[in-house]
Amino acid sequence: MKIRAQMAMVMSMDKCIGCHTCSVTCKNTWTNRPGAEYMWWNNVETKPGIGYPKEWENQETHKGGWILKNNKLELKAGGRLTKLLQIFYNPDLTPIDEFYEPWTYNYENLINRKLGKYQPVATPHSQLTGERIELKWGPNWEDDLAGVHITGKRDPNLEEAIKLAYEQVFMFYLPRICEHCLNPSCLASCPSGAIYKREEDGIVLVDQDMCRSWRFCMTGCPYKKVYFNWKTHKAEKCTFCYPRIEVGLPTICSETCVGRIRYIGIILYDANQVAKTASTEDPYQDHLSLFLNPHDPKVIEQARHDGITQDWLEAAQRSPVYKLAVDYQLAFPLHPEYRTLPMVWYIPPLSPMINAVSQENLLDTVEEMRIPLKYLANLLTGGKTEPVKQALKKMIALRSYMQKQYYDQGEDLLESLGLKPEEAKDLYNLLAIAKYSDRYVIPTNHREHSVDLHAAQGTVGLEFQEACLTCGLETYEEQNLIRKTEVQHGR
Ligand code: SF4
Ligand code: SF4
């Protein structure tokens, strides 16, 4: 066993109000500069819909993530030989139009135009070419279901076209950032070894000096969360706000989240099991079993041996992410079938209950909710409805229990779901009224230990990956060793 700590996030789709504050504050912090205009490291999509870039979930088109071939993990876009053959032309690259051509408006015209017959207007101009453009798509084009009667048919999660009919339509918001995966296919796709997963907290970053503009990472990421800066010609992506995280502060998207939907905490996992877990039949259930119980004395002992410090262990024990994903099993990974082992998990939205009055048991309404269970399962559990159903039932039971506490109404359904009253109160505290310090349990970084962690923990647990195409080093362990030496020598 080789224990690692991973900084992880849970977002509660049940509470997201689609205000886009997270996207705007992220943009102002990280991508408010030339070359990055079209980048939204954090974006919020309305579901159903095809999102940003268009149809990012359709891996037959975009070729992101991993597939199992003869029980072995392979990049969907092809391995080493394919990359060598396509090094100067990547046929699977997602063009900028699929994201959108960034634009601005000539506001000057509103102020400076000479007096004329017609009212002046601010027309849209491309931020890339300066030419006037016709607006056809944007990062937020389908906001609140706009145009979804056309685009929604191409949403791969939606099996029942009928649900787009006006009377049956449903919607919820899906905020998205880079998943800082345990098995990142962006990293494995990079011929230059420019993408790396930090040893100390698992944050996935792009080394701007090492990036050679091949852009295979953009194809490799199934969530389409790596972007190409047209000015610097380097790949860029969400940094999980590591300068804030290192000093114990939450990411800027979390800090400013109006709905308080985000939780950040530490997860401990066995790095030796990453490849095996990514290759199993049921990526959600097995992904869950990869997480180690931070209260287990054996885990604590091994974690100490592997260089995890006491304050990080304590943070792992208080982690809201562990509680929501493992203890209560309310949060799920986004598209686990891509096999990247994503580390941003989601609590499914509880839609209004219909026919609640006609049901004998309130929990049965879960089958009749406006948002189809199958849709949520396709998004969060690789199509398995049972885990999502159980999570929604727990949320119904919790609401009903709290109603009974405060208003003497509602039913006590906890027992039927194996929940104790103290657990319900704990969940209520976490989901409804959690304080800042409960939502974000972030230990500060130990820079003095990060190199030791390298030594103690070795590579990123991805030994099955292929050698780097350009430097020829056999494993990422060797590449990390070079990076470690450079850090030690201050280069
Ligand atoms: S979500 Fe992030 S870490 Fe995962 S493959 Fe994409 S860019 Fe890499
Ligand atoms: S700021 Fe929070 S509530 Fe608003 S869209 Fe972003 S995630 Fe949702």
Write a structural description:
This protein is an alpha+beta fold and 491 residues long. It has a domain at 259-439: 2-Layer Sandwich (Alpha-Beta Plaits), CATH 3.30.70. The protein contains 21 helices and 14 strands. The strands form 6 sheets. The protein has a 4-stranded mixed sheet with strand order 12-1-14-13. Strands 2-7 form a two-stranded antiparallel sheet. A two-stranded antiparallel ribbon has the order 3-4. A hairpin with a 2-residue loop joins β3 and β4. The longest helix has 23 residues, at 385-407. Residues 451-491 have low confidence and may be disordered. The site of one iron/sulfur cluster has 14 residues, from α1 and β7.
Question: Which overall shape is indicated by the principal axes computed on the Cα atoms?
Answer: globular
Please bin the fraction of helical residues: 25-40%
> What Rg do the Cα atoms give?
23 Å
The SS-based structural class is: alpha+beta
**Assembly classification:** single chain
What is the terminal-to-terminal distance? 32 Å
Proportion of strand residues: 5-15%
The largest β sheet comes out as: 4 strands, mixed
Mean pLDDT over all positions: 88
User: What fold name goes in the CATH topology slot of one domain?
Assistant: Alpha-Beta Plaits
CATH class categorisation of one domain: Alpha Beta
Bound chemical compounds: iron/sulfur cluster
CATH architecture of one domain: 2-Layer Sandwich
Number of distinct beta strands? 14
Task: Give a quick rundown of the structure.
The protein is α+β, with helices and mostly antiparallel strands and 491 residues long. The chain has 21 helices and 14 strands.
